[in-house]
Amino acid sequence: xxxxxxILPLLLFILTGLFTVYSFVFPFxxxxxxxxxxxxxxxxxxxxxxxxxxxxxxxxxxxxxKVAIGGNVAxxxxxxxxxxxxxxxxxx
Length: 92
Fold this sequence. Notes:
By secondary structure, the protein is mainly alpha-helical. 73% of the residues lie in helices and 0% in strands. The protein is built from 3 helices and no strands. α1 (4-25) packs antiparallel against α2. The termini are far apart.
């Protein structure tokens, strides 16, 4: 249970990342319920995973903590760039 504080944020990052990649590789059809879920996963789960990784006091595995922090920040940065550059510049 000591490693749960490092593994759970990493698991949130992995699940969000995999679903995001899946939704880009196999895009959902218009009107499907899962069409915009990756937006919500990045908006809600990435800050949660980031806070869990930062506030983890039991630092038994610092590499997992660094990967969880970096991964969640990278996904939030991806969403920000996708929403700004993708919409404004590329017209996505």
